[in-house]
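does this look right to u?? oxa(dethia)-CoA version
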Amino acid sequence: MTKIKAAITAVGGYVPDYVLTNDILATMVDTNDEWIVSRTGIKERRILKEPGQGTSFMAIKAAQQLLEKSKVDPKEIDLLIMATATPDMLVASTGVYVATEIGATNAFSYDLSAACSSFLYGMSTAAAYIESGRYKKVLLIGADKMSSVIDYTDRTTCIIFGDGAGAVLFEPNTEGLGLQDEYLRSDGIGRNHLKMDAGGSILPASEETVVNKQHYVFQDGKTVFKFAVSNMADACGRVMEQNGLTSQDIQWLVPHQANKRIIDAAANRMEVTEDKVMMNIQRYGNTTSATLPLCLMDYESQLKKGDGLVFAAFGGGFTWGAVYLTWAYNGA
Ligand code: UT7
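got this back:
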């Protein structure tokens, strides 16, 4: 019997219209375009400004684009996994609302939260459902409205993050194409280095938490950077070793877009040249769960059936890893 692989068969994405440039940020905090570009590679990011619109707004747009492009009937979707660190609200799952809004009325849905590795872990989860034969169409969405948890008076975080959403459809493939292997890890040592202190069960919202700005993301950038550089590169190397791959076997590195210097380290470890690295950090910044699918959105037309892709991410928690996947269709 042919083994079922889980292949990506369609891609969609959405970024809000408003462009927050480095020059605009320089009017808000003590920073400048030269510093931001040289330290991170980011030139601008998109921000969802309209009041009352949350992560689901962007997720719905990304999913709708995917459905329109692929002509898939939303009623055929079995499961929608919503990867996000910034759900619309706590308790009520964002994915459930998104599924209903896009007409996926025969699907069940839930949110998956692993900071910047949410989408990467979601790939593993989605693929497992397909490989087992349990479901035929799993929609994985990565979306974050990071602007909802960023302090725009803190120059160490506000320059990095942006808002966006991306979606991919996983379906069974009997040609051997799709998710091949993964190397996923996590370490609770990261808990204090990248976090939002209040609003959870340890420190519920109060007047004091608001005054103390504890509903914003705190990041010990230097420490996170150090762990990210070594672990993301290590994960890329391991997934290649596990599968006996050389740089010749990899057509694309699809890295989490947190800092160009972290991406460069992963590319060096894999010995892949810059033309094989998907990069849109300069336009979107770090959109957390949306970085990987937004890369696919931007590079889809260049992808060819059989291409070898390594996805890699590192995020809060700490969470990190790499996934090796072969592409299932010609993008053009
Ligand atoms: O996606 C989730 C995981 N997150 C990451 O992967 C992010 C990892 N961290 C980073 O990308 C980097 O650490 C940052 C981009 C956040 C910071 O870059 P850095 O090269 O690590 O800078 P630094 O924190 O070492 O700061 C260097 C200097 C400091 O000044 P002094 O102490 O040397 O005088 C900072 O105060 O740069 C200063 N600085 C800034 N200057 C201008 C910090 N932020 C800014 C800023 N503009 N926005």
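Residues 179-326 form a domain with the Peroxisomal Thiolase; Chain A, domain 1 fold (CATH 3.40.47.10). idk if thats expected tbh
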